[in-house]
Write a structure and sequence with these properties.
By secondary structure, this protein is α+β, with helices and mostly antiparallel strands. The protein has six helices and eight strands, in the order H-H-H-H-H-E-E-H-E-E-E-E-E-E.
Length: 199
Amino acid sequence: MGRLLEALRAESGKCPPANPAKVANASDEIRRFARFAAPTFSQNERLLAAIRGEALPDSLLSAHDGTYDDLAALTDEHLSGYVAMLAESDLRERGDAPPDDTARALCRHCGPVWIHPDIARVAPVIDGWPRLIGCPWCHVRNRRELPRPLVVCGDCQNFIRDTVSSRDGMGSCGAGCNAERPWPRVQHACAAWRPKNGE
């Protein structure tokens, strides 16, 4: 071992001294090569991993319409929340209410909708309905397929009571809805429903 070490020392003594500029350039080259050689974890792959981590379908990746630079700024916890919101938004676009949306509310734009109980809890209640200026359903394009809480025509400001029939008899809708069920106490889903004494 001693002879090998002596031979290496003697060999290194024959080498010319290193040029500091060349060493610096070599370090830059090594760093540049390492950047391309090392596997990179793209933001697309990171989003897909977060989607799979929540046991959601890979197709949800297409619901992301932001930039991947935006994703880079998110912590893993925030990314997980973002994925949950993507999943809820995708459900709503398909006409399904998210499982946690169990409270009814009245949105100024959408009419009666299902929302999360936490939202209903903080919204002002008028005529028994939590009122919203906007809701998570406002962005849904296919508005005819929205799942809605059941309402009755007799409690709606659009209901026109038939003057010939009895108090709970037939009537009509001033908004042109529910022509097949004009009875005031029959429950049904209606986008145009508004409380009788409300706005």
